[in-house]
Design brief:
The chain is mainly beta. The protein has two helices and 19 strands.
């Protein structure tokens, strides 16, 4: 893949391979705006509306739909046709009563999965890191660029700080209210978000620690009893006994 940074434009031949666009019919593609997801791991809203959902035949039609505020991402109407939509984002079409979650897919890398209406306000987010801010409070930095502040009553003994890196939060969007927390540990359910096993879900049965996330190996076991390995960076916890929300199509 060619370098995509440092320019406002993106040629189709250099676009991420999983984008469902014709490479040689036109020269240029829509380059996602800077936002919650990196260019190589997102879909611009226009491509999602036109090429994935098929709600528009041309870019002009897609831009009009988006500019009218008919497309919601994580509960917020997005009018920028370049807005990057990525992992676990919830895309809603209230006028059509249709709701989708962007999930890992074995062949398409990222693809929308239809979800019930009651799940449209729920989102899974992974804790990438956390820092202590002024006042001794804890700030959780999440995979989609969000930050959640955990207020602590006693900075010397922060009993509220139960959250660990690589764990998953179930939050409400757009309010960011925490509904549930699942730490990364053996026995939890997780889905692979990158690499050759992308889109596969299994139970964590082993963690071989190494220097950093890319050298830590995680062993998972799927429903058929098949075991496979991936690096920690590619593991996304989705629940304990079962996924907290819909993350795979039927």
């Amino acid at each position: 893949m060619a370098r995509m940074g440092g320019s406002r434009h993106l040629k189709r031949l250099a676009a991420p391979a999983f984008w469902p666009i014709l490479r040689k019919e036109h020269v240029w593609a829509v380059k996602p705006s800077p936002g919650p997801h990196p260019v190589e791991k997102c879909l611009p809203l226009l491509v999602l509306i036109r090429d994935v959902f098929g709600y528009a035949e041309t870019a002009r039609e897609a831009r009009r739909i988006i500019s009218e505020g008919k497309v919601f991402v994580d509960g917020v109407p997005r009018k920028n046709y370049k807005f990057p939509v990525g992992l676990m984002d919830v895309v809603s079409f209230p006028d059509l009563d249709e709701y989708y979650r962007i999930c890992p897919h074995p062949t398409r890398f990222l693809w929308p999965v239809k979800i019930p209406r009651e799940e449209a306000e729920l989102k899974l987010v992974r804790i990438e890191n956390k820092v202590t801010v002024k006042g001794g409070h804890i700030q959780l930095n999440l995979h989609d660029g969000r930050n959640i502040l955990i207020k602590v009553s006693n900075p010397t003994k922060p009993s509220e700080d139960v959250y660990k890196t690589m764990g998953t939060l179930l939050i409400k969007v757009p309010s960011q209210e925490i509904v549930e927390y699942v730490p990364f540990e053996e026995g939890v359910l997780a889905i692979v978000v990158d690499g050759k096993n992308v889109g596969r879900m299994g139970r964590v049965v082993g963690i071989q620690k190494g220097m950093g996330r890319k050298r830590t190996l995680v062993t998972l076991e799927d429903e058929q009893g098949h075991r496979f390995q991936t690096i920690l960076e590619y593991v996304f916890v989705v629940g304990r006994e079962k996924p907290l929300v819909t993350v795979m199509g039927r």
